[in-house]
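Lecture notes, unit on protein representations.

Consider one protein chain, 95 amino acids long.
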Amino acid sequence: MSEIWRSFGKARLSALRNEQCGWLMWLAEEGDAGFSSRGDCSAEGETEFLLSNGQRDVYPTAWVLPLETVQRAIAHFEQSGERAPFVDWHDDGAI
């Protein structure tokens, strides 16, 4: 399990990973509600991730992605600072 943060200008990308899958959050700038990844919307249950401070977070399994997709999204962000176009993103600031 791991927590990764990357920065590109003001933008930041967070990736939580366990042995099977991952979850992404993209922030345009500090204080932004951001966007979070969505995976297989038909998936049920919850998936646990361990943060670097030892905290355990649980997210719906429908929000997680295969590790390969997470790695590709990190690489895309490191090159462009943008959200990966091949990830289904949810606007966390939308009402």
